[in-house]
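Hello again, I could really use a second opinion on something today. I've been staring at a protein lately and its backbone has me curious. Can you walk me through what the tokens say about the fold? Take your time with it, there's no hurry, and the full record follows here:
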Amino acid sequence: SLPAVLRDAIQTTFHDLDIQQNGFLQFKFFSQLLHKSGLYINEMETNAIKRHLSHIKGAEDEETKIVFTIEDIHYFCTNPSFMICLQIEESMSSEREIRINQYVSKVLEQDEKTIDDFLKSPSLSIVGDRQAVLRLAKILREKSLDIATRKNLTKAISKISEKPREASGVDRMPGVKKDKIYDDQAIAAFSWILCHGSPIYMDQRTFTNPEHENISQDLIPLYTHWIQKYEKSTRRLEFVTKLQEEGSSRQSVPPELVEYRETCHEACEFVRMEAIRGLGNISDHEHEHSLKVLERCATSDPCWAVRGMALEMLKAFAVNIRKASFFERWDMQEYWWSDQDEPWRSQDESRKYLWQTLEISTRDIAWQVRVRAIEVITETAEIGNIDAHRILVPLIEDQSNRVKSATQRGLTNLLYGRGEWVARRWEELQKNVKDGMEHDLAASEAEEKATRATRKDAATTVIDVLIEYIKSGKHGFRQQNLITLGKVVHSATMRGENKCINFLVDCMDSDIASVRTSAMAAVRVICLKDDRRVVQKIMEMAAYDVDVHCKRYAIESLEVVSSRGQRDPLDVLCDLLGHGEAEIRESAVRTIEHLADHCDSHMIGKIQLLLSDSNWSVRRAAATCLKHLCGDHSNVENLIPDPQDRRWFLRSWPHP
């Protein structure tokens, strides 16, 4: 609300200018009204208010058709979106003014080492005093102050500002969110620090950003360390804030320059980071203006540490939203603020712009920002949100290993997020397989039972999006993408998933050996033992694949996908004991050692022939296999013809 003196001044001036006495004034009187009331506004903010009024009033962009009321003036003077609210002063007692002046003086006297101790326990008489906040905000806007003082003022505003609280005395219907009260002047002060201006063009030839930092530590020391270690030791980034030629358009920008970010009111990135931290302390996920400021910083700030901190604050907001009721989450039909709070941006537009912001951040030039954008998406997205899947999946091909790891964790969390459904499906799948049901039928029935039991739909998942992306992707990335698919499904306890296994089995028919090998590597970690589809396909590859490396990997995979004593895999392995490549013979005999559970005269005879093989590793693998199959130490020792192999055997398994 406005102070009584200012409210009366505005009302008197309004009625003096309202010649027709109809309660509406043309916009051309807007600046005049504020000036006579003792308030001042610059041209940029006047244009912003004009656009706002033209939108909500449905008028064309002409001053003669845009009108406003006294209620509109009150709205603009108390809304943190407009800097007029930093001019709203109350009448104060002399004791209160002295108290505020003393506090401000002490803040200005502190240095970076003492400010934190001073702000730990501010006086209760100063906490929540909006005039004290206003005084600090006014001093902060003075450009002559040094960086340390501006940081201290920013911290002080955050400490003494009023925290969000629910309005009392207003009864609401059950299920309807209560109105909240925020310290609008403090939010406006931080918004001014984080405001952006004209575009900055970056010379992309000068960018370097090594991946050696611990991404989990706080962003301020992380950024300080980066400056000390990398920025000063490499070629400095070159930015251009103004193009050389007069009248140059964005189409005429040289190719080495890219439109990077935007200039800021506050030049120091450390002050902007403190402002973002303060904004998170005095606001919450229900305040749309704060979300707008954070979204703008996440995409437009010239410093990667500031962009990263804005995303971290969005992540903190997202955690609170996930704790809210089912109908108030970010990707559900309902939203958490009413249309009356910000009538010029609808709920659907807000939700859409949030996802656009996160998608832009995943393409940021700094890997630290991309990692944090992925974390925000993971925290924000409700299960089944196709936007989250669509944004995250392409990042599995990112050039940064940190980003790829974060993407894999994010996809796993999105897939496992159905929690109860996943656990119930796994329980039913194990039960069906134990009852002797074929694995594909067991998985389908388990999903149906889990859906009926938990009343959750198992429609579109991360698996569908990943499979479609791999199918349409480039061959150069398909190998690593298949492995990522396997890791995600395995980490999310979705083993035995039909669509995934069928897709990987089909990929084993690829003409590219590396793709076949990657498909086997993925299917090994997600299939259950003795899955008929997988075992049959890998046996075919072990027997007929023309690539030696792929053939060897198929042989080794039989040990993982088959149970001990299965006859069909052992028959294929016995046939491979006479293969022309030594590494194939060695892999076959080592796999037989793990799969065979009894002595077979035909198998034993073939393995005995390998004791005279031309390759020493094959001979020793055969001796080890016979020792485990036969269990007769002396008999195996006598069968070994080579003296050196015999001495090796005795050293490895001496006589009792």
Observations:
- The radius of gyration is 34 Å.
- The CA atoms of residues 192 and 477 lie 45 Å apart.
